[in-house]
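Example S7 (structure tokens).
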């Protein structure tokens, strides 16, 4: 799959549900309606469409997201079905971490490769303030369980908000160093409930880096960064090493390297996180899979991928998956 800018599309981000157990101030899921649940793609439909994308269109990576993918009762079956597809080199999941302490082993046994966990603060009060859930201890236990289950390399994601968690960055980097995991600091995007207050809450990566001066003695750019993060090996003042990434959709976008396609739980096709949906796949899937129709819909969405993302997003992250 090549888009109009000749970018090869190899990475599917599949949002399994709009439901989430958290109520993050910058994201906040809408109430899940019955019709949304009824209309969502089944494990069988998900397997069929991903098999087709791998076999016919060169798809290599799949990330399960949401809402929170763990809010789907059939998550294990979905993982098992996707893990059975030859040709996927990376099967990953992004989660709020609430279910990991009890289920990390189940996800690993089902065939999941690795996990990213959101972690916005190590201060229990601030964590609860940002996420709406008093559950820092449970998420930290989940991170330990992920490491024990071998769902690695594990990456932690922190959305950085002015007047909220900027002061927590040094502690988060020290925690990442102790656990031998990468932490990525994400610039707030003007989507969802804080879209209107974006100017007051946004922190550019340059400022995040300044906030880390008290723990970081040296910064070394890594050769192998992910496609969306500028990644550094950081030497801390106490001699420890941490890998730190900055995801900078606002100050320095990474659209020229974008290799992503997004499909939501109701089958909508999004060419970009911040753009509108371009079609819905369910007509090509129900009552049975129609490959020609599917390919026509896919082609329209991929050709609609803009060279750069729009300035503001139209969807909330819970619909489309961050
Ligand atoms: N529930 C899962 C989680 O907590 O990671 C997966 C879905 S969540 C929408 C995916 C990522 O999007 C999270 O790292 C979240 O912090 C991030 N996110 C949500 N709203 C955002 C916004 N307005 N700007 C930047 N990142 C955002």
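Recovered sequence:
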């Amino acid at each position: 799959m090549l888009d109009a800018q000749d970018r090869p599309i190899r990475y599917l981000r599949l949002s399994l549900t709009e439901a989430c157990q958290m109520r993050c101030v910058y994201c906040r899921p809408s109430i899940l309606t019955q019709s949304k649940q009824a209309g969502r793609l089944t494990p069988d439909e998900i397997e069929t469409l991903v098999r087709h994308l791998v076999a016919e269109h060169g798809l290599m990576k799949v990330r399960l997201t949401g809402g929170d993918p763990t809010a789907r009762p059939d998550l294990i079956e979905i993982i098992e079905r996707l893990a059975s597809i030859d040709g996927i080199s990376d099967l990953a999941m992004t989660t709020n971490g609430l279910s990991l302490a009890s289920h990390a082993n189940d996800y690993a046994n089902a065939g999941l490769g690795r996990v990213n966990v959101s972690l916005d603060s190590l201060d229990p009060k601030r964590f609860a303030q940002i996420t709406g859930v008093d559950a820092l201890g449970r998420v930290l236990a989940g991170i330990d369980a992920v490491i024990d289950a071998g769902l690695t390399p594990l990456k932690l994601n922190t959305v950085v908000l002015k007047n909220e968690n900027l002061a927590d960055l040094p502690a988060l980097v020290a925690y990442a160093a102790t656990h031998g995991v990468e932490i990525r600091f994400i610039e707030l995007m003007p989507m969802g409930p804080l879209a209107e207050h974006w100017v007051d809450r946004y922190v550019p990566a340059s400022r995040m880096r300044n906030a880390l001066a008290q723990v970081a003695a040296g910064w070394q750019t890594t050769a192998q960064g992910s496609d969306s993060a500028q990644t550094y090996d950081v030497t801390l003042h106490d001699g420890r090493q941490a890998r730190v990434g900055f995801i900078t959709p606002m100050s320095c976008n990474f659209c020229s390297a974008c290799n992503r396609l997004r499909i939501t739980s109701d089958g909508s096709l999004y060419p970009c996180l911040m753009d509108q949906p371009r079609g819905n796949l369910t007509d090509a899937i129900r009552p049975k899979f129609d490959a020609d129709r599917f390919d026509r819909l896919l082609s329209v969405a991929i050709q609609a991928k803009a060279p750069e993302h729009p300035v503001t997003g139209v969807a909330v992250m819970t619909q489309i998956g961050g």
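Notes on this example. The first helix runs from residue 34 to 39.
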